[in-house]
Amino acid sequence: MLRSFRFTAAALALLAAAGCQRGPYRPTAHFVPATSQPVGKTQAEDPAVAALIRPYHDKVTAEMQGVLGTAPVALTKKAGESPLANFVADLQRQRAAEVLHEPVPLSVMSNGGLRASLPAGPVTLGNVFELMPFENELVVLDAPAATVQQLFDYAAHVKMAISGATYTATPDGHAQDIRIGGQPFDAAQAKPYAIAISDYLAGGGDNMVFFKNIAPRHTGVLLRTAIADHIRDLTKAGQPVTAQVEGRVKVN
User: Fold this and answer.
1) How much is the pTM?
2) SS3 content of the chain, % helix, strand, coil (to 5)
3) Residue 166's closest CA among 251, 75, 242?
4) pLDDT of residue 173
5) Which of 14, 29, 100, 156 is most exposed by smallest CB count within 10 Å?
Protein backbone atom coordinates (compact mmCIF):
# COMPACT_ATOMS: atom_id res chain seq x y z
CA MET A 1 0.00 0.00 0.00
CA LEU A 2 2.83 2.36 1.01
CA ARG A 3 4.79 1.56 -2.19
CA SER A 4 1.69 2.29 -4.30
CA PHE A 5 1.23 5.68 -2.58
CA ARG A 6 4.90 6.63 -3.16
CA PHE A 7 4.67 5.67 -6.85
CA THR A 8 1.52 7.73 -7.32
CA ALA A 9 3.06 10.75 -5.59
CA ALA A 10 6.19 10.55 -7.75
CA ALA A 11 4.09 10.30 -10.92
CA LEU A 12 2.06 13.36 -9.93
CA ALA A 13 5.25 15.31 -9.21
CA LEU A 14 6.66 14.49 -12.68
CA LEU A 15 3.40 15.51 -14.36
CA ALA A 16 3.38 18.76 -12.41
CA ALA A 17 7.00 19.48 -13.41
CA ALA A 18 6.23 18.76 -17.08
CA GLY A 19 3.25 21.09 -16.93
CA CYS A 20 5.44 23.89 -15.56
CA GLN A 21 8.28 23.44 -18.12
CA ARG A 22 9.01 26.60 -20.04
CA GLY A 23 10.71 27.34 -23.34
CA PRO A 24 14.30 28.62 -23.55
CA TYR A 25 14.90 31.88 -21.76
CA ARG A 26 15.02 34.76 -24.23
CA PRO A 27 16.49 37.93 -22.71
CA THR A 28 14.92 41.21 -23.74
CA ALA A 29 16.75 44.50 -23.35
CA HIS A 30 14.88 47.22 -21.51
CA PHE A 31 16.36 50.70 -21.47
CA VAL A 32 15.35 53.27 -18.97
CA PRO A 33 14.15 56.47 -20.68
CA ALA A 34 17.17 58.49 -19.54
CA THR A 35 19.54 56.43 -21.73
CA SER A 36 17.35 56.19 -24.81
CA GLN A 37 16.98 59.90 -25.49
CA PRO A 38 18.43 61.00 -28.86
CA VAL A 39 21.40 63.33 -28.64
CA GLY A 40 21.91 65.92 -31.36
CA LYS A 41 23.14 69.40 -32.14
CA THR A 42 19.77 70.89 -31.22
CA GLN A 43 20.53 70.25 -27.56
CA ALA A 44 22.33 72.99 -25.69
CA GLU A 45 25.91 72.28 -24.69
CA ASP A 46 26.46 71.67 -21.00
CA PRO A 47 29.21 74.18 -20.08
CA ALA A 48 30.50 72.05 -17.21
CA VAL A 49 30.81 68.92 -19.35
CA ALA A 50 32.34 70.90 -22.23
CA ALA A 51 34.97 72.36 -19.89
CA LEU A 52 35.77 68.88 -18.58
CA ILE A 53 36.23 67.42 -22.08
CA ARG A 54 38.01 70.38 -23.75
CA PRO A 55 41.61 69.62 -22.63
CA TYR A 56 41.34 66.05 -23.96
CA HIS A 57 39.58 67.22 -27.14
CA ASP A 58 42.25 69.83 -27.85
CA LYS A 59 45.09 67.39 -27.20
CA VAL A 60 43.65 64.73 -29.51
CA THR A 61 42.86 67.30 -32.21
CA ALA A 62 46.44 68.64 -32.12
CA GLU A 63 47.86 65.09 -32.39
CA MET A 64 45.56 64.15 -35.28
CA GLN A 65 46.55 67.31 -37.19
CA GLY A 66 50.25 66.58 -36.87
CA VAL A 67 51.87 66.19 -40.31
CA LEU A 68 53.87 62.97 -40.78
CA GLY A 69 54.86 63.33 -44.43
CA THR A 70 53.89 64.58 -47.89
CA ALA A 71 52.32 62.71 -50.79
CA PRO A 72 52.79 64.21 -54.28
CA VAL A 73 49.63 62.43 -55.43
CA ALA A 74 46.86 60.72 -53.51
CA LEU A 75 47.32 57.02 -52.72
CA THR A 76 44.03 55.30 -53.49
CA LYS A 77 42.67 51.78 -53.62
CA LYS A 78 40.70 50.12 -56.37
CA ALA A 79 39.78 46.63 -57.45
CA GLY A 80 42.86 44.59 -58.27
CA GLU A 81 46.35 45.97 -57.70
CA SER A 82 46.38 49.52 -56.31
CA PRO A 83 49.01 52.00 -55.08
CA LEU A 84 47.54 52.11 -51.57
CA ALA A 85 47.42 48.32 -51.10
CA ASN A 86 50.99 48.02 -52.45
CA PHE A 87 52.16 50.78 -50.08
CA VAL A 88 50.70 49.14 -46.96
CA ALA A 89 51.62 45.56 -47.90
CA ASP A 90 55.22 46.55 -48.63
CA LEU A 91 55.67 48.39 -45.32
CA GLN A 92 54.14 45.42 -43.47
CA ARG A 93 56.77 43.13 -44.96
CA GLN A 94 59.59 45.57 -44.16
CA ARG A 95 58.47 46.15 -40.54
CA ALA A 96 57.94 42.45 -39.84
CA ALA A 97 61.43 41.66 -41.15
CA GLU A 98 62.91 44.37 -38.90
CA VAL A 99 61.10 43.09 -35.80
CA LEU A 100 61.86 39.40 -36.38
CA HIS A 101 65.38 39.99 -37.74
CA GLU A 102 64.82 37.71 -40.70
CA PRO A 103 63.60 37.99 -44.31
CA VAL A 104 59.83 37.97 -44.80
CA PRO A 105 59.23 37.14 -48.47
CA LEU A 106 55.47 37.79 -48.69
CA SER A 107 52.88 40.25 -47.38
CA VAL A 108 49.13 40.47 -47.79
CA MET A 109 46.74 43.43 -47.50
CA SER A 110 43.19 43.22 -48.78
CA ASN A 111 41.19 46.21 -49.98
CA GLY A 112 38.63 45.62 -47.23
CA GLY A 113 41.13 46.57 -44.53
CA LEU A 114 41.91 49.95 -46.11
CA ARG A 115 39.13 52.35 -45.09
CA ALA A 116 40.33 55.63 -46.65
CA SER A 117 42.85 56.98 -49.16
CA LEU A 118 45.96 58.95 -48.24
CA PRO A 119 45.41 62.44 -49.68
CA ALA A 120 47.75 64.42 -51.90
CA GLY A 121 49.73 66.98 -49.91
CA PRO A 122 50.38 66.82 -46.17
CA VAL A 123 49.64 63.41 -44.64
CA THR A 124 48.55 63.70 -41.01
CA LEU A 125 48.24 61.18 -38.19
CA GLY A 126 44.48 61.66 -38.54
CA ASN A 127 44.73 60.49 -42.17
CA VAL A 128 46.45 57.32 -40.94
CA PHE A 129 43.70 56.71 -38.37
CA GLU A 130 41.10 57.13 -41.15
CA LEU A 131 43.02 54.67 -43.33
CA MET A 132 43.45 52.10 -40.53
CA PRO A 133 40.89 52.66 -37.73
CA PHE A 134 41.21 49.10 -36.40
CA GLU A 135 43.42 47.87 -33.55
CA ASN A 136 44.91 45.13 -35.72
CA GLU A 137 48.36 43.75 -34.95
CA LEU A 138 50.97 42.97 -37.57
CA VAL A 139 51.74 39.23 -37.34
CA VAL A 140 53.70 36.71 -39.38
CA LEU A 141 52.41 33.33 -40.56
CA ASP A 142 54.70 30.47 -41.49
CA ALA A 143 52.60 28.99 -44.26
CA PRO A 144 53.32 25.66 -45.98
CA ALA A 145 53.56 25.69 -49.77
CA ALA A 146 50.06 24.22 -50.17
CA THR A 147 48.58 27.13 -48.21
CA VAL A 148 50.59 29.61 -50.24
CA GLN A 149 49.05 28.12 -53.40
CA GLN A 150 45.60 28.60 -51.82
CA LEU A 151 46.49 32.23 -51.10
CA PHE A 152 47.42 32.91 -54.72
CA ASP A 153 44.31 31.15 -56.04
CA TYR A 154 42.23 33.31 -53.65
CA ALA A 155 44.08 36.41 -54.88
CA ALA A 156 43.58 35.44 -58.54
CA HIS A 157 39.79 35.61 -58.15
CA VAL A 158 39.94 39.31 -57.20
CA LYS A 159 43.27 40.18 -58.93
CA MET A 160 44.74 41.06 -55.51
CA ALA A 161 48.44 41.87 -55.45
CA ILE A 162 50.79 40.07 -53.05
CA SER A 163 53.81 42.03 -51.85
CA GLY A 164 57.05 40.27 -52.76
CA ALA A 165 55.52 38.27 -55.60
CA THR A 166 54.12 38.40 -59.11
CA TYR A 167 51.67 36.02 -60.75
CA THR A 168 49.27 35.62 -63.65
CA ALA A 169 45.53 35.31 -63.02
CA THR A 170 43.77 33.00 -65.48
CA PRO A 171 40.19 33.71 -66.69
CA ASP A 172 38.88 30.87 -64.51
CA GLY A 173 40.44 32.37 -61.37
CA HIS A 174 43.63 30.37 -60.91
CA ALA A 175 47.14 31.65 -60.26
CA GLN A 176 49.94 30.67 -62.63
CA ASP A 177 53.58 31.62 -63.11
CA ILE A 178 53.91 32.55 -59.43
CA ARG A 179 57.24 34.13 -58.62
CA ILE A 180 58.35 34.99 -55.10
CA GLY A 181 61.33 37.29 -54.81
CA GLY A 182 61.78 36.83 -58.56
CA GLN A 183 62.13 33.06 -58.21
CA PRO A 184 59.56 30.48 -59.37
CA PHE A 185 57.26 29.33 -56.57
CA ASP A 186 58.18 25.79 -55.46
CA ALA A 187 54.93 23.97 -54.56
CA ALA A 188 57.01 21.07 -53.15
CA GLN A 189 59.17 23.19 -50.87
CA ALA A 190 59.28 21.82 -47.33
CA LYS A 191 60.30 25.10 -45.69
CA PRO A 192 57.28 27.32 -44.96
CA TYR A 193 56.94 30.79 -46.43
CA ALA A 194 56.79 33.69 -43.96
CA ILE A 195 53.84 36.02 -44.65
CA ALA A 196 53.38 39.45 -43.02
CA ILE A 197 49.68 40.05 -42.47
CA SER A 198 47.17 41.57 -40.03
CA ASP A 199 45.89 39.40 -37.19
CA TYR A 200 42.38 39.85 -38.63
CA LEU A 201 43.26 38.25 -41.99
CA ALA A 202 45.45 35.67 -40.25
CA GLY A 203 42.36 34.56 -38.31
CA GLY A 204 40.41 33.88 -41.50
CA GLY A 205 39.01 37.38 -42.12
CA ASP A 206 37.86 38.31 -45.65
CA ASN A 207 37.31 34.58 -46.26
CA MET A 208 41.02 33.72 -45.97
CA VAL A 209 39.99 30.62 -44.02
CA PHE A 210 43.02 28.68 -45.24
CA PHE A 211 45.12 30.66 -42.70
CA LYS A 212 43.01 29.81 -39.62
CA ASN A 213 45.00 26.79 -38.47
CA ILE A 214 48.40 28.48 -38.60
CA ALA A 215 49.62 29.90 -35.29
CA PRO A 216 50.76 33.50 -35.85
CA ARG A 217 54.06 34.92 -34.68
CA HIS A 218 53.37 38.22 -32.94
CA THR A 219 55.33 41.41 -33.60
CA GLY A 220 53.63 43.49 -30.91
CA VAL A 221 53.22 46.28 -33.48
CA LEU A 222 49.83 47.71 -34.39
CA LEU A 223 49.40 47.97 -38.13
CA ARG A 224 48.40 51.63 -37.79
CA THR A 225 51.60 52.32 -35.85
CA ALA A 226 53.64 50.61 -38.57
CA ILE A 227 52.05 52.86 -41.22
CA ALA A 228 52.64 56.06 -39.23
CA ASP A 229 56.25 55.09 -38.39
CA HIS A 230 56.98 54.28 -42.05
CA ILE A 231 55.73 57.68 -43.21
CA ARG A 232 57.83 59.39 -40.52
CA ASP A 233 60.90 57.41 -41.68
CA LEU A 234 60.28 58.45 -45.29
CA THR A 235 60.15 62.09 -44.20
CA LYS A 236 63.36 61.78 -42.18
CA ALA A 237 65.03 60.33 -45.27
CA GLY A 238 63.75 63.22 -47.40
CA GLN A 239 61.43 60.95 -49.37
CA PRO A 240 57.77 61.53 -50.30
CA VAL A 241 54.88 59.15 -49.67
CA THR A 242 54.48 57.35 -52.97
CA ALA A 243 53.56 53.96 -54.39
CA GLN A 244 52.85 52.63 -57.85
CA VAL A 245 50.94 49.88 -59.61
CA GLU A 246 53.85 47.70 -60.74
CA GLY A 247 52.23 44.86 -62.62
CA ARG A 248 52.37 42.40 -59.72
CA VAL A 249 49.21 40.80 -61.11
CA LYS A 250 49.02 39.95 -64.80
CA VAL A 251 45.72 38.91 -66.33
CA ASN A 252 45.93 36.13 -68.88
Assistant:
1) 0.82
2) 40, 20, 40
3) 251
4) 87
5) 29
